[in-house]
Amino acid sequence: MKKPNCPIIAIEEHYWDPELTRHYTGIEAPRGADVDKKLYDLGSLRLQEMDAAGIDVQVISHGAPSTQKLPADIAVKLAREVNDRLAAACAANPRRFAAFGVLPTANPEAAADELERCVTKHGFKGAMIHGMANGEFVDLPKYWPIYARAEKLDVPIYFHPSLPDPRVTEVYYQDYAKDFPLVVRPAWGFTVETATQAIRLILSGAFEKYPNLKIILGHLGETLPFLMWRIDAALRRPGQKPLSFRDIFSKNFYLTTSGFFSNPALLCCVMEMGVDHLLFAVDWPFVPDNRPAVEWMNGVPLSDEDKAKILSGNARRLLRL
Ligand code: ZN
């Protein structure tokens, strides 16, 4: 395969912790045993597949829904244990693995403390939140302690998709969910859920309070770069609170290529956000092979300098790798 001539850091790469997935019930799409095997591996299989594609570093995160659907009495303790186990896996391969932690969002103060513990004790690069927290969007002020702490620690929070709220699935997708289960998931449902979360966080005023908060979105920004002009223009019409959607989105948000290897979509992101806000990711092993993603990046119509920024330079700076 053709590999770009620069280090490669992939930042939305998943695994499953068996003590956490034990709590999942009926919320996961069917997937092959092969993907499961990769998800539960934090060693040789993962490294083999990274090597086959020339990926130097994976920033590893749990898969959806992570700890976002657990009550506080379970989530707080379990999140610590899950993060400690991931830290041990990273310590075994410190040159190849880094991590985003899980947060017990059911108790936002504890989630903020856990973020700080992960970063200061384990050297984690930030944390990932998967979809709504027990039926609530996480822009509500009760969740702001997490953003205050992320800003203080200067680490990003990654908003990752999860299954839409059951009320949304019922109204929007139920008619087609049986024949097309993925329409509820990456084909559309994930996108709507995650883009809505990002828009809501901007509307909430969190970025006025925490102007240096950094949020990462996967999947080339969950459609938002394509819609930037329209959202920004609409929110400037009379009758709205003053707000520059464009200023906040292009300053405080970073986007990754996870599961979305399209030249037109990437170029739209570069044009709206600037190349410094784009980072490489595969979404392995939900995207079951790293190689097509790396081959795609090798051939994107950007300069070698810009490709190197996306492939590792921006991650080094944003995550201090
Ligand atoms: Zn993912």
Termini gap = 26 Å
The CATH architecture would be Alpha-Beta Barrel
Overall 3D form? globular
Structural class: alpha/beta
Name the helicity range. Answer: 40-55%
**What is the CATH class?**
Alpha Beta
The CATH topology comes to TIM Barrel
> Which small-molecule ligands are present, each listed once?
zinc ion
Radius of gyration: 19 Å
Uncertain segments are none
Q: Domain count, please report it.
A: 1
Largest sheet: 6 strands, parallel
Q: Provide mean pLDDT, rounded.
A: 96
- SSE order: EHHHEHEEHEHEHHHEHHHEHEHH
Number of strands: 9
Beta strand %: 5-15%
Question: Can you tell me the CATH superfamily?
Answer: Metal-dependent hydrolases
Quick rundown:
It contains 15 helices and nine strands.
Can you offer a commentary on this structure?
- The chain has a single domain, classed as TIM Barrel, CATH 3.20.20.
- The chain has 321 residues and is α/β, with parallel strands linked by helices.
- The chain starts with 8 loop residues before the first strand and ends with a helix.
- The longest helix has 21 residues.
- The strands form 2 sheets. It has a 6-stranded parallel beta sheet. A 3-stranded parallel beta sheet has the order 1-2-3.
- It contains 15 helices and 9 strands.
- Helix 4 runs parallel beside helix 5 and helix 5 packs parallel to helix 6.
- The model has no long low-confidence stretch (mean pLDDT 96).
- Strand 2, helix 4 and strand 3 form a beta-alpha-beta unit.
- The structure holds zinc ion.
- Zinc ion binds next to strand 1.
